[in-house]
Amino acid sequence: MVLKCGVIFTCVVVLLLQAPESVTAKICILRERNFTSEIWDFWTGYYCYNYTPDFRLNFRYTNITGYILNGSQIPVALIPDEEIQYFSFHYKDPTSLQYLRKSFQTDHFFGLWINCCEEASDCCENSMTDENVYPTEEYPCPAIWDGWTCFDPAKAGTIQKETCSKQAYSTESDVCELQSEKTCFANGTWNQTTDYGVCAIAPVLRHRHTFNVIALAIATVISFPAVVIFFSLRTFRKNLRYIMHRNLILIIVIRNLLTIMSKQIIILDALNSTGTTVMDENSVACRVLAFFENAAKNGMFACMLADGFYLHKLIVRAFANEPSLTYIYVAVSVLSFLPSLIWAIVRNDHGAKDCWMVDDTNDQWIIDGFRIAILVINFLLLLDIIRVMVMKLKRGSVSQQVKSTFRATLFLIPLFGIHIVIITNRNIVPSNTCEAQDIYYYISYLVEGLQGIMVALLFCYINSEVRGELENAFRKFVLYLEQRFDLKFEKKEDLRRATTATYVEAYNRK
Ligand SMILES: *[C@@H]1O[C@H](CO)[C@@H](O)[C@H](O)[C@H]1NC(C)=O
Ligand SMILES: *[C@@H]1O[C@H](CO)[C@@H](O)[C@H](O)[C@H]1NC(C)=O
Ligand SMILES: *[C@@H]1O[C@H](CO)[C@@H](O)[C@H](O)[C@H]1NC(C)=O
Ligand SMILES: *[C@@H]1O[C@H](CO)[C@@H](O)[C@H](O)[C@H]1NC(C)=O
Ligand SMILES: *[C@@H]1O[C@H](CO)[C@@H](O)[C@H](O)[C@H]1NC(C)=O
Predict the structure, then answer these.
(1) Ligand 5 within 6 A of 193 CB?
(2) In whole angstroms, what is the distance from residue 210 CA to residue 342 CA?
(3) pLDDT tens by residue, 415-435
(4) For a tag site, which of 31, 112, 122, 459 has the least CB within 10 Å?
(5) How close is the Cα of 9 to the center of ligand 3, in Å?
(6) CA-proximal residue: ligand 4, atom 7 (nearest)
(7) Residue 155: C-alpha distances to residues 75, 182, 261, 351 (Å)
(8) Domains of the chain, with CATH numbers?
(9) 158 alpha carbon to ligand 4 midpoint, in Å?
(10) Could you tell me the CA-to-CA distances from 120 to 28, 48, 113 in Å, in that order?
């Protein structure tokens, strides 16, 4: 966004040049001109209005002319057909407010204009002192109000940054704060055009979600072979502990894929395209995707619980019966789908829009509460396991396998716990700047991606039993290959020998 002067404004400036200036009054700088504080609010109010983006207005008062107030020129808007002929742009003048409100589309946008006027007033009163409105040796670029933002004095050849004005955002509200940039040239003059292009929120969000997609894609690529390994070897298909591990990794992979899909198809699409987006269309298909993504996330926690439950059975209730697999599958399905179903019904009630992707009604708590509950249960199981484990370890009556599963679980439950603590506490971000939020989101997405990788790593890739089985399988496979290869090779050799023999024989016969 770049500030532009209308044709009418230019003629007002010309008029202003002829206006007498009070010498003793406080001076404040608005772009390339300076004004006494008496008429400051009239001018800045006009600038704030003039630079208000078109999409915030119903119509724009364009018939602007100059009016002499106490010997100084101020801009006023002319209204030919009404009893009032003109009004000023002072944000404290009730008549002006009444006319200007009609021009704005919403109270919110009107409020932003008033906000701009107040900031301008504050800038003149508090940021522009008699010292810093004049260029100095060190700070050749004086304090300045550029129409939207108050900039402090700057050294030559530097870039001065200030929080982006709310006037600069194209969205209804700002998600996080960015910094607009104004250059003080090497020759000691301001670039009159402040760079507000950096105030766009969309690229910030696009980077975050793209990072999320990449992290999940990497995690998926890394953890998928573990699923294949667990499925392909008979030993693992028979062992309940490995079935649990496999299902956990599998559900994480499915969840990663669903999240990647919804981010790509719905969220990144909404950030990239300008026309009607998938999110605007809000089709049934995209809500179904949101539902299954949600259920898959629950499934992760449910499978985690099943895993913890089984470890608890192995260690604490060593002589209890093996739980039935069917029973576990039913329990996991209920724990995955029931909360999502409740969530979907409530969301539907609250006006199903934006593909259920934007949580503007705080329904997310239904799901988060459930996940936290599962984690707490898991944590309690873990504590009980630790208690018994300590006793058993003293007696040395624990198998290597159970020990390694225990160690893995000991690590994984807190990892899942940390992640949910992070994502349910968005307000832990100390400041409202986009950088601070970025750090929060990047860490959160990193931990999210790490979950799948760590589960695959701990339960599969570095597990000694799995590696033993894999080495076995590999040896068998090599043997098998060798046998086949040898067989072929021998046959070929025999054949060649036979040919040679025939050849030699034929030769000898000559
Ligand atoms: C204000 O403008 C006048 C002439 O336009 C100039 O002489 C004066 O130095 C300016 N004051 C400031 C503080 O820039
Ligand atoms: C105009 O001048 C009069 C008297 O000098 C003063 O009372 C009044 O506040 C001034 N108006 C503005 C808008 O500065
Ligand atoms: C602006 O106002 C003047 C005086 O009322 C009128 O003559 C002129 O036609 C108006 N111009 C526009 C563009 O409305
Ligand atoms: C200062 O430098 C900028 C760009 O380098 C140029 O646009 C501007 O006209 C210069 N101003 C003066 C007063 O020399
Ligand atoms: C002044 O800033 C604007 C916005 O960043 C930029 O487009 C323009 O090139 C700059 N002017 C000069 C002379 O550098």
Answers:
(1) yes
(2) 30
(3) 888 888 888 887 788 888 888
(4) 122
(5) 15
(6) 191
(7) 33, 12, 49, 53
(8) 2-199 (4.10.1240.10), 202-470 (1.20.1070.10), 471-508 (no CATH)
(9) 14
(10) 10, 9, 11
